[in-house]
Design goal:
By secondary structure, the chain is of the alpha/beta class. It contains 38 helices and 21 strands. Strands 1, 2, 3, 4, 8, 9, 11 and 12 form an 8-stranded mixed beta sheet that branches.
């Protein structure tokens, strides 16, 4: 999210008596906009972001300095002025404390001219919001429309202007006070962020004697508003939370519902839900199924939807869907978070083997007494089907699901079939968009009853004042793209990279802006983030904007079919593999796989998207490494992940490709980690035989598979057998790669570990001493493998009660891990556990237990509840004495 800078001015005019509501009205507005919730702004100027009774010179300087700061930081600027304004001819002036009765551009603030100059001088500003609580402030909107438009159009700038009144007087600071009230209390009619368009009517209701004026300019055209130029977080969300609040679906839902009209199908769905049934909605693509589901999530619906997944965001994995639904339930269902925690800490064998649906949703929901309503769009997608099947049998769960065909709906649902758009609903929809009855008739005649086509035709009618019918969807999309570059300063060379990135977004998924910007720059697109935002704002009706729970801005396509259109017509001579590579590199820059944090929204996106982009770019080995680094924290999900990828690699690269064998080994390992070590060992034994037959014993692929086989040989208790295998592997790696190669050193590390477990710790420590010295020399003192070797030396030295090494200790090793990798690195957590365990053994129980208590939630978050170290920490907390 770009920065948000704030300047608020409350100014009396020396030629008139002081305004009784100043300075309080300005100060209160400033404070609510500055507060992290709701306004989330920062002062534009360190010492004067709240001005009271400035002179004309000080007023001019403060506004210019605020523009300069916003341009330098590429931030959004919010300017609010409460006081006096006056019209002289075609000019509108804001009056300062020392302005005369007859103002001019030297003695007052000539709004239109000065803002026009500032927009030219400071091109880096990432959007402007101007709030005017002055008499005749609607004239400022007229001035903006006449004077700023050309400058804004040429610079592709975005701004919103909201004024207290039109041509008449503004009374008692009501506009400023009402804005403050609305930002403090929120609006049930709005989504989780309030924009100028959201507060306009509520302000009019609160200020009976004046009517606000609103002007929005998005890139190169007037519009209804830009969701990135918001005023405040909606405080009403916390009081009556709905499922989509704070989700990636929220902004798209607001767009869908802006002109939505109730239909007979919606009435039928409501009736079935009132009778206690689950509902399946069947209908062709474009018939309005997603819009119908979105309508059910509104704050005003009598039956409350507790969680929802809409088709505006693709479902890539079951865990992705289950995690998001569980997050929503924690905010909408009393006791769900506690039930989820209790189910997790029970730690039964069934829980250890459970998949994401059982762990995150079904298990906790079984223990709750209240009924829960869950909405799932397009259950034909495998992840969605698994979620639906896992929830359908729960007695107190009602589902509303969709599919194109009746036969694709889960058994037992009451079926509602959605057909062609109802003519009366189309007429109401057209009226809501400001279109005539004749245009509504044309929409009905030309659309074939498809709501998707109706909305696209209506977009054309609003844009071009006529219902033109381009040739199919391709014609609609071509027309929309032509409108972006037509008459603007955006060149195809800038538009092309953005379109290429949108074309490669997986199934239309929303992309975090930091990643989007990085990919577009790599393809030669706009060099400044603010310029890219201006470009995206021009793609109204094509691109949708949203934000993750932490406020991370995201952009994606309104219609997934538009991606198909773009892929068939590469933009700016950018090939799809090029675009995939740019996205993969931008993801890696924003969320490195070596520092993967699944709870971070950008890393979560990276886990779903980066392997696919690398694969499509032809960088198969990197895609495989990414899959390894970004695995799930749920073992059952990793079994599914590696099973699917092993099949895909076999299908696309062949049964004898090295990656096919490596994926098979990973699949076997995931099965072992799920609790079936014997089956994992059987699968790996077969893979070893096949690899030796295909590649030979000296091949690196064969040796990698044997490495997995050795690990699970040890895990099943045959430590001597594993030791012999790793000794042979170390010899072969040495012959192939040399004594200092990292793979050779890893094999010798495993040899030391299995030697120790085979009750020969002294021999193991001798091997580790040699490995540690080589790793420090080859990889460096701070490399994770070097530090991992040192940890094993400390652990096994302690086991046999030998004196600790002189060069390092648990404390120095932990300090080094924290300095190098941070507290959330898996190896840091492992070292933290052993350091606390050592103190327990030394009798420093209270201090060590406190360290373990503080470590446990971090370990669960980073390593997952299945991790051996999480179980070890829990065991130690249950039995604090020495072991």
């Amino acid at each position: 999210m770009p920065g948000r800078l704030l300047l608020v001015i409350g100014s009396n005019w020396g030629a008139r008596p002081p305004l009784p509501f100043l300075p309080d009205a300005a100060r209160e507005l400033y404070e609510v906009l500055l507060h992290p919730r709701p306004g989330q702004c920062a002062p534009a100027l360190p010492d004067r972001s709240l001005l009271h009774d400035p002179s004309a010179a000080d007023l001019d300087k403060a506004i210019e300095d605020a523009f300069e700061a916003a341009s330098r930081q590429e931030a959004t600027l919010i300017v609010a002025f409460t006081g006096h304004g006056v019209t002289s001819g075609d000019d509108y002036y804001l009056l300062a404390a020392d302005s005369p009765e007859l103002p001019d551009s030297r003695t007052a603030y000539l709004l239109g001219q000065r803002f026009k100059e500032l927009f030219r001088r400071y091109p880096g500003i990432d959007g402007l919001v101007l709030l005017l609580d002055t008499c005749e402030s609607g004239r400022a909107a007229d001035a903006a429309g006449q004077e700023w438009i050309e400058v804004l159009r040429r610079g592709e700038r975005r701004f919103e202007l909201l004024t207290a009144t039109g041509d008449g007087p503004a009374f008692g600071g009501c506009f400023s006070k009402s804005l403050t009230y609305l930002m403090e209390h929120g609006s049930l009619a709005a989504t989780d962020r309030l924009g100028c368009a959201d507060v306009r009517e509520p302000v009019n209701e609160l200020c009976h004697h004046q009517q606000t004026a609103h002007l929005a300019f998005t890139g190169a055209t007037r519009g209804s508003g830009d969701p990135t130029l918001w005023l405040a977080h909606n405080a009403a969300v916390a009081r009556r939370r709905v499922a989509l609040d704070g989700t990636v679906f929220a902004s798209t839902a607001a767009t869908v519902l802006r002109h939505f009209q109730p239909t007979a199908s919606l009435t039928q769905v409501r009736a079935e839900l009132a009778d206690g049934r689950s509902v399946g909605i069947a209908g062709a693509a474009g018939c309005g199924k997603t819009a119908l589901l979105t309508a059910l999530t509104r704050r005003t619906e009598q039956r409350r939807v507790h969680c929802a997944w809409l088709g505006t965001e693709p479902a890539h994995t079951t865990e992705q869907v289950a995690t998001e639904l569980a997050r929503q339930l924690a905010g909408t269902v009393t006791g769900f978070a506690e039930a989820q925690a209790a189910f997790r800490t029970a730690g039964t064998d069934e829980w250890q083997r459970a998949d994401a649906v059982e762990r995150l949703l079904a298990g906790p929901l079984r223990t709750l007494g209240q009924r829960v309503l869950i909405v799932l769009d397009d259950v034909t997608a495998p992840p969605m089907r698994r979620v639906a099947d896992g929830l359908a049998a729960l007695p107190r769960v009602q589902l509303v699901v969709t599919a194109r065909e009746r036969a694709e709906l889960p058994a037992g649902c009451a079926v509602v079939e959605v057909g062609a758009a109802e003519p009366d609903a189309v007429v109401r929809y057209a009226q809501n968009r400001g279109l005539s009855a004749d245009v509504a008739d044309e929409l009905i005649r030309r659309s074939g009853g498809s709501w998707l086509t109706i909305s696209l035709l209506a977009d054309v009618a609003v844009r071009e004042a006529a219902v033109e019918e381009p040739a199919g969807l391709a014609g609609f999309y071509a027309s929309a793209l032509d409108s972006v570059t037509d008459g603007t300063l955006f060149r195809q060379e800038e538009l092309g990279p953005a379109l290429a990135v949108l074309a490669t977004a997986r199934d239309g998924a929303k992309i975090p802006f930091t990643v989007f910007d990085g990919a577009v720059r790599r393809l030669g697109g706009p060099a400044r983030p603010s310029r890219l935002r201006e470009l995206l704002s021009r793609l109204t009706g094509i691109v949708t904007h949203g934000h993750a729970i932490d406020g991370t801005d995201q952009y994606g396509l309104v219609h997934a079919k538009f991606a198909e259109y773009l892929r068939a017509r590469p933009a700016a001579k950018i090939s799809l593999p090029q675009a995939h590579a740019a996205l993969a590199d931008a993801i890696e820059e924003a969320a490195p796989m070596t520092q993967h944090r699944p709870d971070d929204p950008v890393h979560g996106y990276a886990g779903r998207a980066e392997p696919e982009h690398l694969w499509q770019a032809g960088r198969h080995d990197e895609a495989f490494a990414c899959l390894e680094a970004r695995q799930s924290l749920i073992n059952a999900e990793n079994v599914r992940l590696w099973s699917d990828w092993e099949k895909r690699i076999r299908r696309e690269l062949g049964a004898t490709h090295p990656l096919t064998f490596r994926a098979g080994a990973r699949h076997a390992r995931a099965i072992g980690e799920l609790g079936d070590a014997t089956h994992a060992l059987e699968l790996l034994r077969e893979l070893v035989d096949d690899a030796r037959h295909t590649f030979g014993a000296e091949d690196l692929t064969t040796m990698e598979v044997e490495d997995h086989f050795g690990y699970w040989t040890s895990q099943t208790g045959d430590h001597p057998g594993a030791r012999a295998l790793f000794a042979d592997l170390a010899d072969r790696y040495t012959r192939q790669l040399g004594e200092d190669d990292p793979k050779t050193l890893m094999a010798r590390h495993h040899l030391a570990l299995t030697t120790a477990k085979a009750e020969q710790p002294e021999a193991a420590l001798a091997i580790w001493d040699e490995v540690e010295a080589r790793r420090e020399r080859v990889l460096g003192e701070d490399h994770v493998d070097t530090l991992r070797t040192r940890l094993n030396i400390l652990v096994w030295t302690e086991e046999i009660r030998h004196p600790p090494p002189e060069r390092f200790s648990y404390r120095s090793l932990l300090t080094q891990m924290l300095d190098t990798f941070g507290e959330d690195h898996p190896e840091t957590i492992t070292v933290s556990y052993f350091e606390a365990r050592s103190r327990l053994r030394q009798g420093v129980s209270d201090e060590a237990r406190l360290s373990l208590q503080e470590l446990l939630p971090r370990a669960e978050r980073v390593l997952g509840p299945d991790s051996i170290w999480v179980r070890e920490i829990r065991d130690r907390l249950g039995d604090p004495g020495p072991r």
